[in-house]
Design goal:
Blueprint (H helix, E strand, L loop, with lengths): L1 H16 L7 H13 L4 H11 L13 H4 L7 H7 L17 H4 L6 H12 L6 H18 L17 E4 L2 E4 H11 L5 H9 L16 H13 L10 E2 L1 H29 L3
Parallel strand pairs: 1-3
Antiparallel strand pairs: 1-2
């Protein structure tokens, strides 16, 4: 009986220790940040570097995953609890992906509202630099989050976390495959990956979605519609080379769109 209780305690500890899914993972978030930094206005770039100096860096890529990393920092436990629901949105309205705030973003707890909140702080020069630096970290991260399709997915499967798959001979889930699994098949570090994507030239942005007047809501709907496309959820729960060949270009296009939009957000927020 004592052995059984001990094994149960170990099993529960392992379950609790499993980290929350991270949109794009460090690789994808660094790519988005690097793409954005390449297209900052001189004024925005100067302000970014001034704020980042407190963290002894000049690179947005260095802070792009910080909002995920704080979940493992006891000193940031309160902030993690306050912000952990702001990394995603679980649509409840079925395959139409229509954003209805009272239904899909209750009490402002979703990535759409979270991004708007931190953009406002970042652009407010009456705020202390420490608050604006923290806001910069969340803005960089949340723009990336919004463009990972399964961070704008359905509540039924928690954005693909409950959709188990076989990938590269191992068990996984579809969320992890999109977070990092497919990107890693390129075998590129984030610097080289960003250079590759940037060399493809300006990315074409999707057209506006009527009647939305909130760009952050539009980005969420766009991403959700990717998850609703035929073939996004692989047949037989197996992610093979054919799936990667079809979906990796979609993921990379999302990274490029996120990088361009992040640059535009920062240029607007940080330029007088």
């Amino acid at each position: 009986m004592k052995l059984h209780r001990c094994l149960l305690a170990v099993a529960l500890a392992m379950i609790v220790a499993v980290p929350a899914a991270q949109a794009w993972g460090p690789l994808g978030h660094s790519i988005v940040a690097a793409l954005a930094q390449r297209h900052l206005s001189p004024a925005a770039e100067a302000e970014v570097e001034r704020l980042l100096a407190a963290d002894h860096t000049t690179q947005l890529a260095d802070i792009a995953s910080w909002p995920d990393q704080i979940q493992d920092d006891p000193a940031q436990a309160t902030l993690w609890q306050q912000t952990r629901k702001l990394h995603y949105i679980n649509f409840r309205g079925g395959p139409a992906c229509d954003y209805v705030p009272p239904r899909d973003c209750r009490d402002g707890e979703c990535v759409v509202a979270g991004l708007a909140h931190y953009v406002a702080i970042l652009g407010d020069k009456s705020q202390p630099d420490a608050a604006r630096l923290e806001a910069l970290k969340f803005v960089v991260h949340f723009v990336g989050d919004e463009h990972q399709p399964l961070h704008d997915g359905y509540r039924d499967d928690l954005g693909g976390n409950r959709y188990q798959v076989q990938f590269e001979g191992r068990g996984s889930n579809l969320h992890k495959v999109w977070d990092s699994g497919m990107l890693k098949t390129r075998g590129l570090a984030w610097q080289a990956y960003a250079q590759k994507l940037d060399a493809e030239g300006p990315v074409t942005l999707p057209p506006p979605i009527a009647p939305l007047d909130d760009p952050y809501a539009q980005w969420a709907e766009e991403s959700c519609r990717i998850t609703a496309a035929p073939g996004f959820y692989p047949d037989g729960h197996k992610v093979g080379q054919a799936y990667v060949d079809a979906e990796l270009p979609v993921a990379e296009n999302q990274l490029r769109i996120a990088g361009r939009r992040l640059a535009e957000v920062l240029n607007l927020a940080l330029t007088d």
